[in-house]
Amino acid sequence: MKKAIVAMSGGLDSSVTALLLQKSGYEVIGITGLMLGTPAAEAVCVNAKAVADKLGIEHHVVNVVSEFSMEVVSYFEKTYSAGKTPNPCIQCNKFIKWGRLFDISMAKFGADIFATGHYAEIRCIDGVYKLYPAKDEKKDQLYFLYRLEQKVLAKTMFPLYNYRKTEIRKIAEEYDLPPKSAKESQDICFIQKPCTTKKYLLDKFGTAEGTFVEKSTGKIIGKHNGFYQYTIGQRKGIGIAYPYPLYVLDIDAEKNIVYLGREEENYSQSLSLKNVTFSYPVEDNFRALIKVRYNMEAKQGFVDIAEQKVYFDEPVNSITPGQACVFYSPADGHLIGGGEIMKAL
Questions:
Q1: Closest CA to 289 of 333, 339, 251, 341
Q2: Under 8 Å CB-to-CB from 69, ≥6 apart: which residues?
Q3: Cβ contact 150:279 at 8 Å
């Protein structure tokens, strides 16, 4: 019997993942990372254990507090302090889920596969593992998985790829799994409601009076309490009455300046990248469908590997340093790779 280690959060998707693998004949073991020393993080472990008990499977908690603090929380804070906008889920996937938890699953528990509740499909084509969109387009999560490489894709399984979220909820109800009525999880797991990202950053960095500057004229048009409260493309929450709607166009962290301007100034046709990675070996430059944020329609463009630059066929708005720029095949939508946005050009 093959052994499947399932990363369990106590939520709907990972719980049904464990159930489906169990029904498919795998020996299933649940593993949960204790990310923070908080009641909410401990509740995640308790909830995952309740699901494991319901399914009658082993469950283990792995303390990853130090790794999570360094690789995710510190990264999040440092990125904002540099005037950029981080993507902590991508970081967590790389260093925690397919880092420490994956390594323990293989080395300690002798797993044949490592499974999660992500909505994506893995296909092996001519010995190369490629990630394809899930059936449920609203839940497709390829964007957050672009840093996964062949060595982990070969041992990974996403059982939910062929299901819609409504079907997953029905399965949970049918088998009376504890999270059957659970709501969608939060984007940033270490910022628990009612706390917001803005409040978290204010608590971390305090207030520091800076200026709003109209980018086209260089004129100071207002004051703010810290550049890290703003992100490229933001319109709401600026709090300045002006003859035209204002958008955040750029941020100078050293001078504590937030540059504002018109919506049409927020478009660029190219960008530069760093830390580019590919899901499988890619040698030549290529055309691709490209996203610069998760919840956008992919745009046609060209990826220059040597220069680590992207050129779009048409201008794209809100290109945000710190966010991920992810490439997909125009032919069939599979994931090619991605990188961290340095700046719009």
A1: 333
A2: 36
A3: yes
**Whether 89 is catalytic:** no
In angstroms, the CA 201 to CA 234 distance is 16
Let me know: does 122 contact 13? Beta carbons within 8 Å. Answer: no
Count how many Cα atoms sit within 13 Å of the Cα of residue 193 in the half-sphere of its side chain: 3
Catalytic residue among 45, 89, 92, 325: 92
Is 189 considered catalytic here?
yes
For the chain, helix, strand, coil in percent to 5 are 30, 30, 40
Strand residues in the chain grouped as ranges (E): 3-7, 27-34, 58-63, 113-115, 120-125, 128-133, 156-157, 210-214, 219-224, 247-252, 257-261, 267-278, 286-291, 299-304, 309-317, 324-328, 335-344
CA separation (Å) from 162 to 26, 234, 334? 19, 35, 15
Strand positions, DSSP E, 35-99: 58-63
Residue 271: exposure state from Cβ atoms within 10 A (0-12, 13-18, ≥19) = buried
Nearest CA among 56, 58, 46 for reference residue 6: 58
The band of 306, judged by pLDDT with boundaries at 50, 70 and 90, is very high
Q: What is the pLDDT of residues 67-99, one digit of tens each?
A: 999 999 999 999 999 999 999 999 999 999 999
Q: Are 101 and 31 in contact (CB under 8 A)?
A: yes
Nearest to 18 by CA among 38, 34, 32: 32
CB neighbours of residue 328 within 10 Å: 23
Cα distances from 313 to residues 24, 293, 300, 345, in angstroms, run 45, 17, 6, 14
- Which two tokens mark 77? 């804070």
CA angle 319, 254, 339 (to 5 degrees): 30
Query: Which DSSP string do the residues of 206-238 spell out, in sequence order?
Result: ----EEEEETTTTEEEEEES-GGG--TT--TT-
pLDDT at 193: 83
